[in-house]
Design a protein that fits this description.
heterodimer; A: 729 residues; alpha/beta; Spore Coat Polysaccharide Biosynthesis Protein SpsA, Chain A; UDP N-Acetylglucosamine Acyltransferase, domain 1; Serine Threonine Protein Phosphatase 5, Tetratricopeptide repeat; 3 domains; nine-stranded mixed beta sheet; seven-stranded mixed beta sheet; 20 helices; 36 strands; elongated; B: 407 residues; Four Helix Bundle (Hemerythrin (Met), subunit A); Rossmann fold; 2 domains; three-stranded antiparallel beta sheet; 15 helices; eIF2B_epsilon (chain A); W2_eIF2B_epsilon (chain A); Nucleotide-diphossugar_trans (chain A); guanyl-nucleotide exchange factor activity (chain A)
C-alpha cells in the first residue's frame, strides 16, 4: 500500500518489508536445551516434556506463543525426537486452529548453532522462514506479548539494515552473595545504549573477582555518548531474529552457543556491523528453565501466578484445571486426602492422588496418580506422576520423577534427584545432592558442556534392558530392595552442586560466602554500583581499559612462561630467542623490554625455586644466569638495554627487599663477571641515579663499593691504556 | 458445522487465555455463537427441542469450563436453553390448539382469508396461559410476559400459517428452529441495548447538584451518568480509581470528555469522601440469585462505607448479568486471582522472591472481584426497571428454567 508511493530502489526495499509484514508470524522453538544440566532425567525423556507444575514445559511455551499471535512454529527436535513428535501428535497442538505446529528432526545437531545451520540448509530448499522470526527454546515460560515487539523490530530493521536481532531482557536482581540470579544462572553484565537500546556488551561468564570488575572496550565510550551498564538484568532467551541470523550461523560454522558465541561474535565483529538491540519487559513474566534451581524458581513463580494466565487453575493447553483454594493450594477435584493430613501453603496436588494419615506437605508439587502413605513429610519437593511413597518417608527439596517407589522410612536429603522408576530401599537415606538413575552414569563423561546427549536418543531402550540385568547382579546402591545407581559428581563440580540444585542454598554456605566477602572488603573497597549510567566525559571509570602498561604486563607474563618452559625442557637458546622475538613483534615491544622481561623471568624463577637462605637463592640465581647468559646477552647488547636490565633488577629488589635486596650487589657483580653487563652500563646507571631521591638510592649505596671498584678499575685501565699508549709512543 | 466447531474452539481459546473480558462482550459473543450453533444444528423429526437443547448444552459446557469465572457465559447459555424450552412449549400447545382451530376453519372456509391473526393470537394466549399454569404468576410475567410472547409467536406463526393446511412435522421442525432463532435474536438485541434501557432511567435517580461516587470502570455506569448529563442535570462524580488495574482512570477520562465534573480519588479515600456523597452507583460483574453482587475488587468496602453513612448503594446490571446460582454454592467460582505483576514490578521485588537464597519469600495476592452481600445493596437497576435485592430471585426465575440451573 504505502510501498507504491515510493519510487526506485527504496520502493523495492519497502515492498520487501511490506511483504514481510504480511507474512505469518513464525517462531523456531528449540525442543532441546543442548545442555546436560538435567541429567540423569534427560537421558530418558527430553527436557521439554518434563512436567513443571504438572504440565510439560513445551505446553507453556506453545500456549504462550499461540496467544502472543504466532501463527507457525517450527519445533526443532533433536534428542529423543520421537518422544517429542509423539507427544505433539497426541496433544491438541497439531490440530490447533490458530497455530500451525511443524516438527523438524535432526540427530546430528549438538548445539543451538547446529540447529540453526540445519534450519538454514532446509531453508534454501523449502524457504519456510519467510521473514523475521522468534527464537525461543522449549523450556521458556512466559506471558509477554510479542506482536508489538515484532513490529518494533521490523520498523527498526526497516530503518537500519544491520539491526538483526532484538533480545528480551527483564530486571531481576541477583543475589549479592552468590552472584547468581534467582534462576541459578551466573550474574549477567550488559552494557546498553540508553537511548537506542542497542546492546554494546554482554558478559555472562563467571566473574571471578568478588568485587565484580568488568572490562569494557574503550572504543565503546568513544562512539557512544552514554552507556548504561547493568548487572541486574536477566536474559530471557527470547529473541526476535531477522533471517540474517540464520545466514550468520551458516557463515560462522564455529558458533555453537547462542550467547557465548553468537552474541559475542556479533558484538565483536565490526566488519559486518550487525547490531543487536534489547527490549526490557516490565509487567510480563519470562523465565527459562535452565537448571534445577530455575526449575524450582519458575515452579514457584507459576504457583504465585506471575505467569497468569498460564497457571494450574486455568486450562490453557489441554491440561485439566485444578481448583485453587485458600493459601495458594491447588487441588484436583478427586484427590483423596486424609483428614489428619496437613497440606500447607503453595502446594499443588494432581488428579487421582491419595494422601494418607498424618502427612505433612508443604510448598510442593505432587503429580497425578501418586499414592502417599501415612506420616510422610514432603517439603519443597517436586513429585511427578504415579509415584508411590510408603509410610514414614521424609522428602525435602527433591525432584522425584515418574514411577519412582520410595519404600517405608526412606529419607531423601535436600537436592536429591530421582530419575524415572528408581526404587529407594527401606529406611535408606539418599545423601544430599545425589542424582539417582536406573541408567548407569556414562563413563566417558564429556567435559565440554556443548557436547550433548545426542547419541543417547537412539540407544536408550536397548541400553535400559542391558542395564536392568546388571542391576540385579549388582547389589543396589539404594538399599537391599532398591534399584538405581547413584551418579558420581564430577570432581570439579562438587562444590558447585549447591548452586544449581532444587534445594535452597544451605545456611552454612551462605555464611561462608558472607565471611569471605567480609574478609575481602577489608582490602578491596571498590564495589561496582548495581546499575548506573557511565558518561564518557566522566573522569573516573571503574573499568579496566587497555593501556600500554597493561600490554607490558601481559608481555612479561608471556616471556616468563616461555623462559620457564625453556628452563624446564632445556630448549636451545636460539629457539627461545626466536620465541621471544615473536612475542616482541606481536606485543610491539622494544628490544630493551625483552631484556628487562627476560631478566625478570630468570630472577623470578630463582625466587620461585625453593631456598632456605640468601646464599642458596644466590646460588640458584647464579646457576640460572650462568646457564642462560647468552639469552640475556642477546637482548642486552646495547648500553641502554643493559641499563634497562639493571633498572628492572632494582625494581624487583624493591618489591621483595627482604629476599632479593641483600643480594643486589652480588648478582650485579655476577652479571658483570659473566659479561652480561658492561661497566659502562653500570656507571651510566649510577650517573642517572645520582640525581634521584634518597629513597631510590638504597641499592645504589649498597653497591657503592662495587661501583667505586669499577671506577678505579676503569681508571687503572685508562691509565694502563695510557701507559700502553705511552709505551707505544 | 465444521466452521461452527472452529469458531467454538476459537472462542473457547479466547476465554481460556482470558483474552476476552467484560460480561457484555462475552455475553454478546456467546449468544451469537449459540445462534449459529442452533442454525447449523440438524434437527430430527421427533423431539426437535431436545436435539437443540443437547447441542446448545454441549457447546455451553465447553464455554463455561473455559472461563468459569465469567458468569455471563453461563447466564446466556441458560437463557438460550430457556428460549428453546419456551418455544417448544408454546409450539406444542399452539399445535394442539391450532388443530382445533383448523377443524373449525375447515368447516368454515370463508373464515380462512381473514383469520390470519386469529391462530396467532390464540397461540400467544395459549402460551401465556401455559406459562402461568406452569408456575405461580409473577408480577413480571403479568406485566412483561404477555406482550412479549404475543409478538414472538405472531411473526413465526404467520409464516407457518401459509402452509398451515398440512401442518406436518417438517414444517413444525423448521418452525421451532425459526422461532428459537427469533427468540435468540431478541436476546441479542436485549444485550446490545441494555445500556440504553438502563440509562433511560438515569433521570429518575440522579438529581440536580448531587454527588455520585463510583468505583472502577463500567460501560453501563458511564452511559447512565452521561444520560443524566444529557438531560441537563448537573452533578459531580467521584471516581475511585479501582486499584490495581486503575480502570477508574479510564472512566474519569471518558467522563471528562463528555463534560462531567469529575474527581478521581484513591480507593482508600472512599470512606473519607462518602459523607459528601449522595449516591453510590457501581456496575456489577454479576448479580447472584440471592441479590448479592460480584463487582470489581474494593466494592464491598465502598458498600460498607455507604451503609455507615446511609448513602444509597445502587447497582446497575443488564439482564445478562443476572445469575441463577447462589454464591454459597461451592461449584460456583466467584473470584479469580490475577497476576501479581499488576500490583508490583517483578524486577524491583525480584530479590524478595529469590527462593534459592532461603530468605523469606514474598507472596502477592491479586483478586479480581469482591462480593457485596444483598443487605448492603439499596437498589438494582436492570433494563426492566429498579428492583429490591430481595426481589432478584423472582426476576431471575423469569429468565431461566429450573432444569438448566445445573449444567
Amino acid at each position: 500500500m504505502g510501498a507504491q508511493k515510493k519510487g526506485g530502489a527504496a520502493a523495492r526495499v519497502s515492498e520487501d518489508a511490506e511483504v514481510q509484514s504480511r507474512h505469518r508470524l513464525q517462531a523456531i522453538l528449540l525442543a532441546d536445551s543442548f545442555a546436560t544440566k538435567f541429567r540423569p532425567v534427560t537421558l530418558e525423556r527430553p527436557k521439554v516434556l518434563l512436567p513443571i507444575v504438572n504440565v510439560p514445559m513445551i505446553d507453556y511455551t506453545l500456549a504462550w506463543l499461540e496467544s502472543a499471535g504466532i501463527e507457525e512454529v517450527f519445533v526443532f527436535c533433536c534428542a529423543h525426537s520421537m518422544q517429542v513428535i509423539e507427544y505433539l501428535e497426541k496433544s491438541e497442538w497439531y490440530s490447533h486452529p490458530n497455530l500451525l505446529v511443524r516438527t523438524i528432526e535432526s540427530h546430528k545437531s549438538i548445539s543451538a548453532g547446529d540447529a540453526l545451520r540445519y534450519m538454514y540448509e532446509q531453508q534454501t530448499e523449502t524457504s519456510q522462514i519467510q521473514g523475521d522470526f522468534v527464537l525461543v527454546s522449549g523450556d521458556t515460560v512466559s506471558n509477554m506479548p510479542l506482536a508489538d515487539l515484532i513490529q518494533e523490530h521490523r520498523e527498526r530493521k526497516k530503518k537500519d539494515e544491520k539491526a538483526i536481532m532484538t533480545m528480551v531482557i527483564k530486571q531481576s536482581k541477583s543475589s549479592p552473595l552468590t552472584h547468581q540470579s534467582r534462576l541459578g544462572t551466573d550474574q549477567l553484565f550488559i552494557a546498553v545504549d540508553p537511548l537506542t537500546k542497542q546492546l554494546l556488551h554482554y558478559e555472562e561468564d563467571k566473574i571471578d573477582h568478588p568485587s565484580g570488575s568488568v572490562c569494557l572496550e574503550k572504543s565503546l565510550l568513544d562512539t557512544n555518548p552514554s552507556v548504561l551498564v547493568c548487572n541486574d538484568m536477566q536474559d530471557c532467551y527470547i529473541d526476535i531474529c531477522s533471517p540474517e541470523v540464520l545466514s550468520l550461523f551458516e557463515d560462522n560454522f564455529d558458533y555453537q552457543h547462542l550467547r557465548r558465541h553468537f552474541v559475542k561474535g556479533v558484538l565483536v565483529d565490526d566488519i559486518m556491523g550487525y547490531k543487536i538491540f534489547t527490549h526490557e519487559i516490565h509487567s510480563s513474566y519470562a523465565g527459562r528453565i535452565d537448571n534445577f534451581r530455575s526449575y524450582d524458581t519458575v515452579s514457584k513463580d507459576i504457583i504465585q501466578r506471575w505467569t497468569y494466565p498460564y497457571v494450574p487453575d486455568i486450562n490453557f493447553s489441554g491440561n485439566r484445571p485444578l481448583k485453587l483454594g485458600r493459601q495458594g493450594i491447588y487441588k484436583a477435584s478427586d484427590v483423596v486426602q486424609s483428614r489428619s493430613a496437613d497440606v500447607g501453603a503453595s502446594t499443588v496436588i494432581g488428579y487421582g492422588t491419595k494422601i494418607g494419615h498424618g502427612d505433612k506437605i508443604m510448598n510442593s508439587v505432587i503429580g497425578n496418580g501418586c499414592s502417599i502413605g501415612s506420616d510422610v513429610v514432603i517439603e519443597g519437593s517436586y513429585i511427578w506422576n504415579n509415584v508411590t511413597i510408603e509410610d514414614g518417608c521424609e522428602i525435602r527439596n527433591a525432584i522425584v520423577c515418574d514411577g519412582v517407589k520410595i519404600r517405608a522410612g526412606a529419607v531423601l536429603q535436600p537436592g536429591v534427584v530421582l530419575s524415572f522408576n528408581v526404587v529407594v530401599g527401606r529406611d535408606f537415606v539418599v545423601p544430599a545432592y545425589s542424582k539417582v538413575s536406573l541408567l548407569q552414569q556414562p563413563t566417558t563423561e564429556d567435559s565440554d558442556e556443548e557436547l550433548e546427549y545426542a547419541d543417547s536418543s537412539s540407544g536408550t531402550a536397548d541400553h535400559l534392558s542391558g542395564l536392568n540385568l546388571q542391576m540385579e547382579s549388582k547389589a543396589s546402591e539404594l538399599g537391599p530392595d532398591g534399584a538405581g545407581y547413584i551418579w558420581e559428581v564430577c570432581e570439579g563440580a562438587h562444590d558447585e552442586e549447591w548452586k544449581h540444585s532444587v534445594a535452597p542454598i544451605p545456611k552454612d554456605k551462605l555464611s561462608e560466602i558472607t565471611q569471605a566477602i567480609d574478609d575481602d572488603d577489608t582490602d578491596d573497597e571498590s564495589v561496582v554500583p548495581t546499575s548506573g549510567e557511565l558518561k564518557s566525559d566522566a573522569d573516573s571509570i571503574n573499568t579496566d581499559v587497555n593501556d600500554p602498561n597493561d600490554d607490558y604486563y601481559y608481555f612479561e607474563k608471556e616471556v616468563e612462561g616461555t623462559v620457564l618452559r625453556a628452563v624446564e625442557e632445556n630448549i636451545k637458546v636460539d629457539l627461545v630467542t626466536m620465541e621471544i622475538n615473536g612475542l616482541r613483534l606481536s606485543f610491539n615491544m622494544e628490544s630493551a623490554d625483552c631484556a628487562g622481561a627476560t631478566f625478570f623471568s630468570m630472577i623470578k624463577l630463582a625466587l620461585d625455586t625453593p631456598h632456605n637462605s640468601g646464599s642458596e637463592l644466590y646460588k640458584n640465581a647464579a646457576s640460572i644466569i650462568t646457564k642462560w647468559k647468552d639469552l640475556l646477552g642477546f637482548y642486552a647488547k646495547k648500553i641502554d638495554e643493559q641499563i634497562e636490565v639493571i633498572m628492572k633488577f632494582e625494581e624487583m629488589c624493591q618489591e621483595s627487599p627482604k629476599e632479593l635486596g641483600p643480594l643486589f650487589t652480588q648478582i650485579l657483580h655476577l652479571l658483570y663477571d659473566k659479561d652480561v653487563l658492561q661497566e659502562d652500563a653500570i656507571l651510566r646507571w649510577e650517573e642517572e641515579k645520582a640525581g634521584a631521591d634518597e629513597a631510590d638510592k638504597v641499592y645504589l649505596k649498597q653497591c657503592d663499593t662495587f661501583i667505586q671498584w669499577l671506577k678505579e678499575a676503569s681508571e687503572e685501565e685508562d691509565e694502563d691504556d695510557e701507559d700502553e699508549e705511552e709505551e707505544d709512543n | 458445522m465444521p466452521d461452527v466447531q472452529s469458531t467454538v474452539v476459537e472462542f473457547v481459546n479466547k476465554l481460556r487465555k482470558r483474552k476476552i473480558e467484560g460480561s457484555q462482550a462475552t455475553a454478546k459473543y456467546t449468544v451469537e455463537l449459540l445462534r449459529s450453533v442452533i442454525s447449523h444444528q440438524r434437527v430430527p423429526h421427533a423431539n426437535q427441542a431436545a436435539a437443540l437443547i443437547d447441542a446448545v448444552k454441549a457447546v455451553g459446557e465447553q464455554l463455561i469450563a473455559a472461563n468459569p469465572v465469567e458468569l455471563a457465559v453461563g447466564n446466556v447459555v441458560r437463557r438460550v436453553l430457556h428460549i428453546i424450552r419456551e418455544e417448544d412449549l408454546s409450539l406444542t400447545t399452539a399445535a394442539m390448539g391450532g388443530l382445533d382451530l383448523l377443524d373449525a376453519s375447515d368447516d368454515d372456509d370463508v373464515d380462512n382469508c381473514k383469520g390470519i391473526g386469529f391462530p396467532a393470537m390464540s397461540a400467544a394466549v395459549v402460551a401465556a396461559a401455559a406459562r402461568s399454569t406452569l408456575r405461580p404468576p409473577s408480577l413480571q410475567t403479568l406485566l412483561e410476559g404477555t406482550p412479549e410472547s404475543a409478538t414472538v409467536p405472531y411473526t413465526s406463526s404467520s409464516g407457518a400459517d401459509s402452509e398451515s393446511k398440512t401442518a406436518d412435522k417438517s414444517s413444525l421442525t423448521r418452525k421451532l428452529k425459526h422461532d428459537v432463532i427469533e427468540g435468540v435474536n431478541q436476546l441479542i438485541q436485549e444485550i446490545a441495548g441494555c445500556h440504553e434501557q438502563i440509562a433511560e432511567q438515569a433521570i429518575e435517580h440522579i438529581h440536580q447538584n448531587e454527588v455520585i461516587l463510583t468505583l472502577g470502570s463500567s460501560r453501563t455506569v458511564l452511559e447512565f451518568l452521561c444520560a443524566a448529563k444529557e438531560k441537563k442535570r448537573s452533578f459531580r462524580v467521584f471516581v475511585a480509581e479501582g486499584a490495581p488495574r486503575y480502570q477508574g482512570h479510564l472512566l474519569a477520562k471518558e467522563l471528562v470528555a463528555r463534560g462531567l465534573q469529575t474527581t478521581v480519588i484513591t480507593d482508600s479515600a472512599v470512606f473519607a469522601m462518602i459523607s459528601r456523597v449522595n449516591m453510590v452507583i457501581i456496575g456489577a460483574h454479576a448479580v447472584m440469585a440471592n441479590g448479592g453482587v460480584i463487582g470489581p475488587v474494593g466494592v464491598n468496602m465502598a458498600a460498607l462505607a455507604a451503609q455507615k453513612h446511609a448513602v444509597p448503594f445502587v447497582v446497575l446490571a443488564g439482564s445478562h448479568k443476572l445469575c441463577p446460582l447462589y454464591p454459597h454454592n461451592p461449584e460456583v467460582l466467584l473470584n479469580e486471582l490475577r497476576s501479581p505483576s499488576e500490583l508490583l514490578d517483578f524486577g524491583e521485588f525480584s530479590d524478595c522472591l529469590d527462593f534459592g537464597a532461603g530468605s523469606g519469600s514474598l507472596q502477592v495476592v491479586n483478586p479480581t472481584f469482591d462480593y457485596v452481600p444483598p443487605n448492603l445493596v439499596s437498589l438494582f437497576i436492570t433494563d426492566t426497571g429498579g428492583h429490591n435485592p430481595s426481589y432478584m430471585y423472582r426476576l431471575i426465575a423469569d429468565y431461566y428454567s429450573a432444569d438448566d440451573l445445573v449444567m
